[in-house]
Write a structure and sequence with these properties.
Blueprint lengths: L8 H15 L2 H7 L9 E6 L5 H7 L6 E7 L2 H10 L11 E7 L7 H4 L4 E5 L7 H14 L3 E14 L5 H12 L2 E2 L2 E2 L5 H11 L3 E6 L2 E3 L4 H18 L4 H16 L4 E12 L1
Parallel strand pairs: 1-2, 1-4, 2-3, 4-5
Antiparallel strand pairs: 5-10, 6-7, 8-10, 9-10
Helix pairs in contact: 6-8, 7-9, 9-10
């Protein structure tokens, strides 16, 4: 596979799931548990559920019966997510059920979330615009529901061994994350700060925690796939990098294949609750 060739999105989500699970901030889940107890099933909305990684991870860490509502624009991913929740149980063995909603999650309102106990998402905020973040935050805050948003990129990465091109590619990638797509200017690495500020303006307390990926020889396949996507986006943003990036890619992918490449990708988790 060359640097230009990347996995289909669903396969990419499946490949990264163990690293996501290892990175998420468990203490934010600890802070949620006291609010999520009762005899009736706990209703949780998962925004941008993808293949269901967040739902599977969190459901097994919360007690009592649960019903998850999975939201995504991609009907195929929703189907995969629902199938992937089969057999998942709560931390105490209670049943977990699931339903799906296909559509634009940024158009949800407080009324849509009024019956929920929690709203959650993973690797979502950086793909939204400032206006979309405001709408999602308003829906959660106006409904009075806690929100747990995990694994938003911060734009900071560290590769070992270091290479002079690393910071150049990082800067180009971050510009790509902030690009305008069909009139939508994405927040990219500015998303966590924008989300925290939006909740704060509404008087909602916010806690943040680091949730970095730490990829070593045991995650060589993920490190190589992440690198391809990272470099490809940087070169898309700055086409003049394509020439020098060829030798750089060969070095980095050879290091990954040999188990010599270390990758630290910084993320932040955010818990907002009144």
């Amino acid at each position: 596979m060359t640097v230009e060739e990347t996995l289909p999105f669903a396969d990419w989500l499946r490949l990264r799931e163990p690293a996501d699970a290892a990175a998420r901030a468990e203490d934010l889940v600890d802070a949620l548990r006291p609010r999520l107890t009762g005899d009736a099933p706990t209703l949780i909305h998962d925004l941008g559920s993808g293949t269901g990684s967040m739902s599977r991870w969190l459901a097994a860490r919360l007690p009592g019966p649960q019903h998850w509502v999975l939201h995504d624009r991609d009907a195929d991913l929703l189907s995969r997510a629902a199938e992937g929740m089969a057999g998942v149980t709560a931390a105490d063995g209670a049943p977990v059920t699931v339903s799906t909603r296909h559509g634009d999650l940024t158009r949800l309102t407080a009324t849509d979330l009024a019956d929920s106990a929690l709203v959650t998402a993973s690797a979502l905020l950086d793909m939204l615009t400032a206006e979309e973040v405001e709408r999602v935050v308003a829906a959660c805050a106006d409904a009075g529901r806690p929100a747990l948003f995990a694994l938003s990129v911060t734009g900071q990465v560290r590769l070992t061994p270091a290479d002079p091109l690393d910071p150049v590619i990082e800067a180009a990638f971050n510009d790509h994350q902030r690009r305008t797509v069909d009139g939508r200017r994405l927040l990219g690495p500015d998303a966590v700060a924008a989300t925290a500020a939006a909740f704060a303006r509404r008087g909602v307390n916010v806690r943040e925690r680091p949730s970095p990926w730490r990829l070593g020889p045991e995650q060589a396949d993920l490190a190589a796939e992440w690198f391809r996507g990272w470099l490809g986006a940087a070169c898309e943003q700055r086409p003049e990098l394509a020439g020098p990036a060829r030798a750089y890619a060969e070095r980095r992918l050879a290091d990954a294949a040999a188990g010599r490449l270390g990758v630290l990708v910084e993320h932040r988790d955010l818990l907002a609750q009144g």
